[in-house]
Each structure stands twice: as C-alpha cells, then as structure tokens.
Design brief:
Two copies of one chain form a homodimer. Chain A is an alpha+beta fold. Helix content of chain A is 55%, strand content 9%.
C-alpha cells in the first residue's frame, strides 16, 4: 500500500486553497490518499523569520495579481476575504477535533472553510463562523465552540504544529510525497510527475 | 513589432540561472526578443525587507533540494558555487558597460557568467574573474577592470537598479511580458502561455 501524501496548509493561505482544489484529484490518479494537515503559518514564520506575503512592499501587489491569475489558469474561482492576517486557530483546532471522530468529516469541513474564505471571500476566522461551518457538515455547533476552548484540543493542534516544524514545513501549501518535500501550489505539476515517475 | 520580454535577474540567483537557460527559447517560439536586465537583489531586499533564501532556517534546506531537482527536471546542469551571498556588482556593471557597446556581446557575457557560477559552480564574483570572463568573449580585460571603477559605469548600474525597483521588481528571475509581471522560474510555463494566448 503506497503512503498517503501529506498536504500541509494554513487556512488563511490563498495558495493553500488553490492546492486544496487540486491535490486529491492528482493523488487519485496514482491511487494515493491525501492526509490533510492544517497548521499555523504564524508560528512557523516566527521560527523562519519571514512573514505573511501581504506584509511586504512590492511583493504584496504582485500576489494580488498573481493569485487571481493563477486561479483563472487552474479554473478555480478565487476571491480574497477582507483584511489580513486572519486567525486560523479556531478552524485548525476544529479540524483535528473533528478528525479524531471522523476523518472524512474533517476533510469536508476543511474544504468548506477554504471555499468560504477564498471562493466566497468571507472572513470565517471567528470561533462562531467555524462552528457554523462545522454545523453545516453535520457536527454539533455548540460542541465545536466548547471544544475550541478545551485544553486537550488546544494541545492537539500544538502537537500538530510542532510535528509540521519537525518535518521542516515552512510554507503553505507544502507537500511531502514519499519523503520528498514540495513547497507551493506551483509545485503541483512536480508533485504529479513525482507520483508518475517515482522521482527524477 | 511586439515588445521584447524584460528578464530581470541577479547574477547570484540560481533560479535566475535556470530561467536564463530557457527564456530566449520560449520567447523565440513567439517571435519575441528578450531584454536581459541584471540588477542587484541585495538593494531590493533592503526595500522589501526580505533576504537571500539561504539566510532562512528550514527554507534554505528546501532550496538546496529544490534547486537541483528543478534543474534536473528542466534538463539543466546545476552546481552551487561555494559560499554565499556573492557580490554581483562587478558582473552587473560589466554587463551594462558591454551592452552600451554591443548588446549581443553583453548577453553572451551574462550567459557565460551564469554558466560559470551555476554550471561549473565557480565563484566568479571578483572584478578579476569578471574581467576574465569578459575577455573570453572578446572584450579587453584591462578595459573592463578600469570600467568597473568608473563613476559613469557605477551610475549606469544604479539607474538600472532604480528602474527595476520602479517597475516593482522584487525577486529573481522576474519577467514582464506586455506589462504583465511574472516572478520565479516556476512561472516560465505561465510566461509561455501568456505569449501564446495574450493572457487569460
């Protein structure tokens, strides 16, 4: 049985969103599963010494142009939510809480969060918005709100972020295919080639 | 007559080197010329607030893996010169000094500098190494060494760097195709599609 592909992403990462719309389809063509692994880019930025792309002069203007252009080329709708950066702790905590009960539900939740953020351009970073999205895919919204404050759930996410850093994940999206790391939605074609050929 | 493609790069940029081996061929398929525009990434970094990729933990390890992997995929030999960052002021000054006499010679010089840096993995950042490479393509090495200290030549490069920043160039390689900016050797396929389709 081949290993699943690790797909690391931050819920506020627009290029992570683009990748989220493609990675399962690519993996399926090579009979692979994808393990979705939300993490917190803000914590990684502190370690690496970088920051959100929208914080940099010149670069930020470029991203505002590159993102919709790359999205159109991939045939994916893309709208940026207002403001930045967005707090993605609630969504990431809810994801792992859901995952420990039902991995398929967690993935459906993640897809819905991403689509609300970047297809609809809605700011869904609050605990309430997170709970609402979880409720839309069948979870109990009140339980989600309670879980977000639960120390065990907080620790669960912290462990996942620590593990991401252990695995040298420094950006979003970030893929690991059979031990080989790929950073960025613009590496999806390399990810696919790697799956096809086993490496080059 | 369609506009030339602007190709901005720093001589110490390995991804700029990868792009340098591809951009003229891509442009030629669409009857386009390429204007090579070396600039100084170090000055841009100060404005943008970023730094050389090898300065960042985690990221630097990734680049050491991604660069040869991307090079192999493009069928381009790639070896990193020892040390970093490299001073690319001599090569950039010599380029514009040569260009004002003979643009074709300047491009041949730039290709040779890049190939010495990243095909051979040699540190050719010194004025002497720069003059030697210029001599290999038919320039007078002593004249090159003198030009590198000439205030007019220094100002010429400064003006080019200022113009690059005016055009929002913040990384290497960076392309402008009919006003449309593309950053990174991983945007070469988008550059080609843009030339083919006129945009999307």
């Amino acid at each position: 049985m081949p290993q699943p592909i690790d797909f690391y992403f931050d819920f506020a990462s627009p290029y992570g969103y683009l990748a989220s719309r493609k990675i399962d389809g690519i993996a399926a063509r090579y009979d692979r599963e994808v393990t979705w692994r939300p993490f917190l880019l803000g914590i990684v930025f502190k370690i690496v010494g970088t920051g959100p792309m929208f914080d940099y002069p010149l670069k930020s203007d470029y991203f505002l142009r590159d993102l919709p252009r790359s999205a159109r080329r991939l045939g994916i709708p893309a709208t940026l939510p207002p403001g930045s950066p967005h707090n993605t702790i609630p969504a990431a905590r809810a994801f792992y809480w859901l995952k420990d009960q039902d991995p398929a539900m967690a993935k459906a939740f993640a897809q819905r969060v991403y689509n609300r953020f970047f297809e609809d351009g809605a700011d869904v970073s609050s605990p309430e918005a997170t709970a609402e999205i979880a409720a839309e895919i069948g979870a109990d919204g009140d339980q989600v709100l309670a879980a977000l404050q639960d120390q065990k759930v907080k620790d669960r996410l912290r462990d996942e972020v620590d593990a991401a850093i252990e695995n040298s994940v420094f950006g979003s999206p970030y893929f690991i295919v059979d031990g080989e790391p790929f950073w960025g939605s613009d590496r999806l074609d390399q990810v696919e080639d790697w799956l096809k050929t086993g490496g080059w």
